[in-house]
Design a protein that fits this description.
The chain has about 350 residues and is of the alpha+beta class. It has a domain of about 130 residues: DNA-directed RNA polymerase, insert domain (RNA Polymerase Alpha Subunit, Chain A, domain 2, Beta Complex), CATH 2.170.120. The chain is built from six helices and ten strands, in the order H-E-E-H-E-H-E-E-E-E-E-E-H-E-H-H. The longest helix is centred in the C-terminal third of the chain and has 41 residues. It is flat, with a radius of gyration of 28 Å. The protein binds zinc ion.
Amino acid sequence: MSSSLNSHLIKKVLDPEIKFKEATSEYVDFTLSNVDLSLANSLRRVMISEIPTLAIDSVEVEKNTTVLADEFLAHRLGLIPLESYDIDKLRYNRECTCDNYCNRCSVTLILNVIATEDSSKSVYSRDLTIVQNDHIKNLKLGNPAVSNDVPEGILICKLRKGQELTVKCIAKKGISKEHAKWDSAAAIEFEYDPWNKLNHTDYWYETDAKVEWPIGKNHRDEIEPNEDDKFDYQAEPTVFYIGVESAKSLPANQIVIRGIDMLRQKVDGIYQELENMDRGLDLEEDLNNNINNGLGMDIGYQDENLGEEGDAYGMPNFAEQDIGYNEASNNNDDYGEANFSDDDEGDAAW
Ligand SMILES: [Zn+2]
């Protein structure tokens, strides 16, 4: 590796830069520099798919005499953004110990509207009222998110005189990888190389691509290439223009902060798994030493079923066993026991 290339790589690792162009509660526009395309794209992917928010997940319809079917209304209610700033205080429903839902894994909202006047009555998301409990008291969690421009929120349905809608909505924590209703970002802009100097974009055109395609939004931030310039086949993108538009369940800056934090947690997770793997390998070595020394296995990872696959000592053949770097093995406080058990599917996390 040449020294110039080496120093280029070192700079990329050591000097990542973020410059903010615009930051409001609804939109954040920034430039991320001196990182790889893969890292910038990871941040985009995490922000759009893995930041937990709250959304209505089940609806119990008590009375619905509107023209809209229950399923149609349930779908509309699910897509209403709910305030999720303190979502970390809520458990995922699937991780909760309750049978169905409880205050620790859900927020309940009630919608109860009757049209009594001759004119039609519009039902908006602000008409949803949160059922308070001690767990969510004083938390920024569960209220329908509205903007200053449209304080009444999202139109859910319209009622004629005499029509009634009474529903109980159970909102749960989730991520948009599961369903788009949990998406914290309405849109994420991601652009690099606005002049397409790297030829990563292959334009389809009728007669002239330059006339038919607009130049990238951030083209003023980069120098326009000269037509006579030679193509630099070693060039790599190092500046990324990212815009995050909030869906209002979280402020836009929080989406970026939580995205970076989520990415860090993922890298930390890989680190921990590799550490666990090392511990598993050490354990295997210790065990082999013990077997060779005729010490037997009394250190607590024996499983009665494993003997069938074991060696002459009745010991399991660990070369054929998964050595436990899945999520379940993380929960073991003494290494070994569950790591070597039958139901350990060590490849789940890989
Ligand atoms: Zn629960």
